[in-house]
Amino acid sequence: SDADIAVAGKKKFSISTLADIAVRIEKQTGITIDIIDLYSSEGLILYESICGIPLVDNPPLRTEFTIKALGFKEDFLPQLNALKLERARRFSSGY
Known about the structure:
The structure is a single chain. By secondary structure, this protein is an alpha+beta fold. The chain has one domain (2-93). It has helices spanning 15-29, 43-50, 59-75, 77-93, and strands spanning 2-7, 32-37. Strands 1-2 form a two-stranded parallel sheet. Helix 2 packs across helix 3.
């Protein structure tokens, strides 16, 4: 079992900083950690992260990311789902 953690600092975290945070948490908890920086995320990963359960809630920051995530959900996710359905249809038809 692992834990998924999303973080947001005053600016984007470097990959090495995110890895360091994950390792420290893993050592303390014994649980594998998957960590993302909300400022570096977009699309489905941002949407799923922002719709998760916040442990520390910052309403203005959460609003900023929610607006970005909902933009993806409303504007791009329907197109991605339509493409997936078309691929499945073509695959099942032998194209």
